């Protein structure tokens, strides 16, 4: 019992606490191009709480990607809840890579 308890205490003292608290929104940017052509671009938006209209203009926008490993910046989402307006309960995987230095990368399955 002493060995197990000391092993548990050692494991707990060596662990790193991770905390992430943000809201991830799927949306789009619509652009009026040359001769009035509209370009519809899907984007991901990250907020530190419920957004208002002013916050939506100030936050970075991230592209959807099929791979966000290494230095590929963006959001990878799988499942039926990844589209704007879809039920987020349908998301099976979300992986986000926002920066390399310092590293900002999260994954949830």
Describe the overall structure.
The protein is an alpha+beta fold. The chain has one domain. 17% of the residues lie in helices and 40% in strands. The strands form 2 sheets. The chain has a 3-stranded antiparallel sheet with strand order 1-2-3, with no helix packed on it. Strands 4-5-6 form a 3-stranded antiparallel sheet, with no helix packed on it. A hairpin with a 2-residue loop joins strand 5 and strand 6. The longest helix has 13 residues. The protein is globular and about 40 Å long. The N terminus is likely disordered.
Strand numbers in spatial order across the main sheet: 1-2-3
Total beta-strand segments: 6
**Which word captures the global form?**
globular
What percent strand? 35-45%
Low-confidence stretches: 1-18
Main beta sheet strand tally, sense and closure: 3 strands, antiparallel
Return the average pLDDT rounded to an integer: 80
Taken together, the total number of domains comes to 1
Element-level helix/strand string = HEEHEEEE
Helix content: 10-25%
Q: In angstroms, what is the radius of gyration?
A: 19 Å
Q: Name the structural class.
A: alpha+beta
Rounded to the nearest angstrom, the distance between the terminal CA atoms is 35 Å
Number of helices: 2
Task: Summarize the entry for a quick read.
With 109 residues, the protein is an alpha+beta fold. The N terminus is likely disordered.
Key descriptive features of the protein:
109 residues; alpha+beta; three-stranded antiparallel β-sheet; 6 strands; 40% strand
């Amino acid at each position: 019992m002493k060995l197990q308890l000391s092993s548990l205490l050692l494991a707990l003292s060596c662990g790193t606490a991770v905390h992430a608290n943000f809201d991830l929104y799927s949306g789009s940017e619509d652009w009026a191009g040359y001769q009035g052509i509209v370009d519809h671009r899907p984007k991901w938006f990250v907020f530190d709480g419920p957004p208002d209209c002013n916050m939506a203009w100030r936050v970075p926008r991230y592209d959807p990607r099929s791979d966000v490993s290494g230095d590929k910046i963006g959001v990878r989402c799988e499942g039926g809840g990844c589209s704007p307006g879809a039920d987020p309960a349908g998301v099976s995987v979300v992986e986000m890579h926002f920066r390399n230095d310092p590293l900002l990368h999260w994954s949830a399955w």
